[in-house]
Design goal:
It contains 13 helices and 12 strands. It is an alpha/beta fold and 398 residues long.
Length: 398
């Protein structure tokens, strides 16, 4: 696994900061927010790029600056980098999610054109498409191969991981680099602000006083491979991806189906593929955007899915700490769920004041842990009615 988040430049730093209860919300200075309701977000510090020339770095969009070190960390932790920091697998399929790609380049190009200052570079306009960020990662880490970009709103990261699993299950691949990346952009930020979906206060998922989401940016990747491929190269898996489900509810462009039926269906699909009962899932990393409509619907869905197990299955939304990272959300939150499974430590529900009654007994408190976790789940919803769920289980060889 590997990640760059607003909490840290790699996954261990991010994970420890999350467990410590750090909230990454800060005043936003990447672009002018004059006229917006909200003026803060969870931005990341760009890590240094070793082995990449200064000339090349100047040509990289912010999204690539996030994605390359996260992908490098994932390959390194999987034992797939050589002494020069290049992938030992020259052919490596890539399943990746994003919503904005390198939009920061497109925005800067447009600003310069509108200002008529003559300094705009057409190279910026040509490099903002997400295909370029995929190429940037491949070139920086020395691999090539089949790649797919999934832009399925906020469920994209989970869908990218699920697609990677499908590639392996069907025999189309035996090892895939998968995950998602997202950089904060003015168009996306102002768009959510115009929807009045962003909070001017703290992001408070599953709280009666919730007032909206916090936007963030991140990149997160994992190496997914078949058991046979891992055995051949002597790799020890962190866990197993045992279940994946996805549905579309067709209810509304920006709102989930009120009764949560599609979300219940997708969780059952993932649990069924994992061959477990809902009560066997000990932790769920919830979508939890802290918007009025989403959290209420999600709470209904968890109640219907878990039934009597709602109080014993622990639930939290890590968006309170790192913000909603859109195309990266399903990937980075999957990594948090895996870390919870492996360590027994549970990400706390930050900024909680008055929990909604339906979730009060399920939300994770500070410094909470569990010693008997065999299965965890990560859940994501997206605009357009997308729903996705992933189940991760302990591996006998981990």
């Amino acid at each position: 696994m590997g990640a760059v988040t607003p909490l840290g430049e790699n996954f261990p730093i991010s994970w420890n900061a999350l467990l410590a209860g750090r909230d990454a919300a800060t005043p936003l200075d990447l672009f002018d927010t004059t006229g917006c309701r909200c003026h803060h977000a969870a931005s990341a510090t760009l890590p240094a790029l070793t082995g990449v020339s200064a000339k090349t770095i100047c040509r990289l969009a912010r999204a690539s600056r996030l994605a390359i070190p996260a992908a490098r960390e994932a390959l390194a932790s999987a034992g797939l980098l050589d002494a020069e920091g290049r992938s030992t697998l020259r052919e490596l399929p890539f399943s990746v999610a994003t919503t904005a790609g390198g939009m920061t380049f497109g925005e800067d190009f447009l600003r310069r054109v509108l200002a008529r200052d003559g300094s705009h570079r057409f190279s910026q306009a040509s490099r903002y498409l997400p295909q370029q960020q995929v190429l940037d990662v491949q070139q920086a880490l020395g691999f090539a191969g089949h790649s797919v970009i999934i832009a399925n709103a906020c469920a994209s990261g989970a869908n990218a991981i699920g697609h990677a699993a499908d590639l392996i299950a069907t025999g189309a691949a035996d090892c895939v680099l998968t995950g998602g990346f997202e950089a904060l952009t003015e168009l996306v930020f102002v768009g959510f602000d115009c929807l009045q979906a962003t909070s001017t206060d703290r992001c408070r998922p599953f709280d009666l006083n919730r007032s909206g989401l916090l936007l963030g940016e991140a990149a997160a990747f994992l190496v997914l491979e078949s058991a046979e491929h891992a055995q051949r190269r002597g790799a020890t898996p962190l866990c197993e991806l045992t279940g994946y489900g996805h549905t579309t509810d067709f209810f509304h462009l920006t709102q989930p189906q009120p009764d949560g039926a599609a979300l219940v269906e997708v969780m059952h699909a993932a649990a069924s593929q994992a061959r477990i009962a809902p009560a066997q899932i000990r932790y769920i990393n919830a979508h939890g955007t802290a918007t009025a409509v989403n959290d209420g619907t999600e709470a209904k869905a968890y109640g219907a899915f878990l039934d009597d197990a709602l109080g014993s299955t622990r639930i939290s939304s890590t968006k309170a700490a790192i913000g909603h990272t859109l195309g990266a959300a399903g990937a980075v939150e999957a990594l948090f769920a895996i870390a919870a499974l492996r360590t027994g430590h549970l990400p706390p529900q930050l900024n909680l004041q008055t929990p909604i009654p339906e979730m009060a007994t399920a939300l994770v408190g500070a410094k909470e842990s569990s010693s008997d976790m065999e299965h965890v789940m990560s859940v994501n919803l997206g605009f357009g009615g997308s729903n996705a769920a992933l189940v991760f289980s302990r591996s006998e060889s981990s």
